[in-house]
Design brief:
By secondary structure, this protein is α+β, with helices and mostly antiparallel strands. The protein has one domain (4-179). Helices cover 45% and strands 13% of the residues. The protein contains seven helices and four strands; from the N terminus they run ααβαβαββααα. A four-stranded mixed beta sheet has the order 1-2-4-3, with helices on both faces. The longest helix has 17 residues, at 4-20. It is globular, with a radius of gyration of 16 Å.
């Protein structure tokens, strides 16, 4: 398997520096800072094994309480396309629905080439879901609902994120790992 430390360490650094640092997801800070996020690395690029790994991850989440594992990331070391990841997520959501777990879990795709439909490739807002590697984030739906219920102006999150990302003016996701990135974030938040 690929060097898991590299992939998982950079994933954690991306969450800390961009997602939590810019407060792109106001619900992420608690889980991240309290070590409640589970990370797994897959070197597969074949659909069936990738689905099996996601099913195994759901089984792991089902076997523990949210105060042990709040949510989980499946990080892929293979260079699968953004469209492939969307197809994988769609099929996985179908499996969750068949198993009656679609109301218990929800997913988010992150990818180095993430692009919202109708957005320009270089639109800064795409960086809300751009990550150093392809990944699927599995969240507990109840936890997300509770977080939304306690967040003021949740409807403004996408607009606020776009404004922050416009000020940050990322061109490529690798900038997150550059020296001085935290200073850029601090300036973007002013």
């Amino acid at each position: 398997m690929a060097n898991s430390n590299k992939y998982l360490d950079q994933t954690k650094q991306w969450i800390e520096r961009l997602v939590v640092g810019l407060n792109l997801c106001p619900f992420a800070k608690h889980s991240f800072n309290n070590g409640l996020i589970h990370y797994e690395l897959s070197d597969s690029d074949d659909f069936r094994p990738m689905m099996e790994e996601l099913v195994n991850l759901i089984e792991k989440l089902n076997s523990v309480e949210e105060d042990e594992i709040s949510n989980a990331f499946m990080v892929y070391s293979s260079d699968v396309s953004f469209e492939y990841m969307l197809d994988l997520e769609y099929s996985f959501l179908g499996l969750l629905e068949e198993a009656g777990l679609d109301t218990k879990y929800q997913t988010v795709v992150f990818h180095p080439q993430f692009r919202y439909e109708g957005e320009e490739v270089n639109a800064h807002g795409n960086f809300t879901n751009r990550a150093p590697y392809p990944m699927i984030h599995i969240l507990r739906a109840e936890e997300v609902s509770n977080a939304i219920a306690t967040t003021i102006n949740v409807d403004l999150i996408p607009e606020n994120n776009t404004a922050k990302l416009d000020r940050l003016a990322l061109i490529k996701i690798s900038e997150v790992f550059e020296e001085g990135f935290e200073d850029r974030v601090a300036k973007a938040l002013r």
